[in-house]
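We were asked to recover a plausible sequence for a given structure. The inputs and outputs are reproduced exactly as logged, with field labels preserved.

PROBLEM: sequence recovery
POSITIONS: 375
GIVEN STRUCTURE:
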């Protein structure tokens, strides 16, 4: 039961964005810049974004050496270069927009740990550097001379350095988006579960108050930015959810002989230090089938693998005690580029970030807002 005032002021908009993660907020902000008189609403079912925006590891990355080589097995050189370019330019755009201090950004470099079986990647490093040179005007990857100096186990034979990657604080990034959205007078409603979208009518139906309230919003245009959860609203969308586990240790109590962002196994495993703690995550490739889910739960097989990796490879001989753990849900597809397109009627979609929401979320929002403005 809603009052006259609620019905008058809070249910009719120029644009409704479904999803309040990096893409949803970026879409709302860019649209408001283009259309300053538009009344813009962002709907979110959780208190915080429900996918991976504030549940990721905070890597400002665009692809490790072995990940890029893996992509080249299924994509053309031009496609891979375009993919890296979108990610790298996306990272630079948020740094320019918000500033490194606001984002908690550190240009700490990226590193990849290689084992004996991956020696072939080193033979291809020159080729990948030449491929990326038009974008970076320099070598991206180089081989470190003494991998043992970082304290890893002897099974790590080589360490490849990426000169152009870094790390940031996802919470600070979201806070910056919230602040900018507030400055543009964008309204954000949390606790609203969208259940149906009527594309031609511009209607968004949902539930609030724990399912006790039936909500029906009207809008001139609708943007769906629900990433891994998109199939619940659009069942035929080419999206496969991918769950990612992250473990965070207690303060380690011993000196950490390295800084930066680290990858292993074609980018599937990643770790960094956060306030003298070990943040370690990924490894969904150890159980792909069970990680293709939108359920927030911990896969014990993957957790055990990560714990063993921490104690035997990253800090051999040390005992890492874990303080907390969480999972985030990402969206993938056969093609690594995001889906940004007009669906039908008054609705457009910007989803499938491929685990690179930090890098490309702002740019996807920009592109989607441009499409909406032209509809």
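RECOVERED SEQUENCE:
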């Amino acid at each position: 039961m809603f009052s006259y005032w609620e019905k008058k002021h809070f249910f009719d908009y120029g644009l409704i964005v479904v999803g309040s993660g990096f893409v949803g907020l970026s879409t709302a902000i860019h649209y408001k810049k283009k259309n300053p008189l538009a009344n813009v609403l962002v709907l979110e079912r959780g208190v915080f974004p429900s996918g991976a925006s504030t549940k990721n590891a905070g890597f400002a990355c665009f692809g490790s050496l072995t990940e890029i080589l893996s992509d080249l097995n299924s994509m053309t050189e031009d496609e891979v270069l375009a993919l890296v370019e979108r990610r790298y330019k996306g990272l630079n755009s948020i740094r320019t927009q918000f500033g490194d201090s606001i984002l908690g950004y550190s240009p700490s470099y990226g590193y990849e740990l290689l084992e004996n079986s991956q020696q072939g990647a080193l033979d291809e490093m020159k080729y990948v550097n030449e491929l990326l040179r038009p974008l970076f005007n320099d070598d991206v990857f180089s081989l470190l001379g003494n991998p043992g100096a970082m304290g890893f186990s002897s099974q790590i034979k080589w360490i490849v350095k990426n000169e152009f990657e870094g790390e940031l604080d996802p919470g600070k990034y979201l806070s910056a988006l919230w602040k900018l959205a507030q400055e543009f007078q964008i309204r954000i409603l949390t606790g609203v579960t969208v259940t149906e979208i009527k594309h031609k009518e511009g209607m968004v139906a949902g539930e609030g108050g724990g399912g006790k309230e039936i909500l029906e919003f009207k809008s001139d245009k609708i943007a769906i930015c629900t990433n891994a959860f998109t199939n619940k609203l659009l069942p035929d969308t080419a999206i496969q959810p991918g769950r990612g586990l992250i473990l965070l240790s207690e303060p380690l109590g011993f000196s950490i002989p390295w800084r930066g962002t680290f990858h292993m196994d074609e980018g599937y495993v990643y770790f960094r230090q956060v306030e003298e703690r070990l943040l370690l995550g990924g490894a969904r490739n150890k159980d792909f089938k069970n990680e293709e889910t939108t359920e927030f739960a911990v896969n014990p097989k993957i957790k055990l693998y990560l714990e063993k990796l921490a104690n035997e490879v990253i800090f051999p001989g040390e005992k890492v005690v874990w303080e907390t753990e969480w999972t985030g849900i990402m969206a993938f597809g056969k093609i690594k580029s995001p889906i940004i397109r007009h669906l039908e009627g008054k609705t457009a979609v910007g989803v499938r970030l491929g685990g690179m929401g930090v890098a490309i979320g702002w740019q996807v929002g920009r592109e989607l807002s441009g499409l909406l403005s032209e509809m």
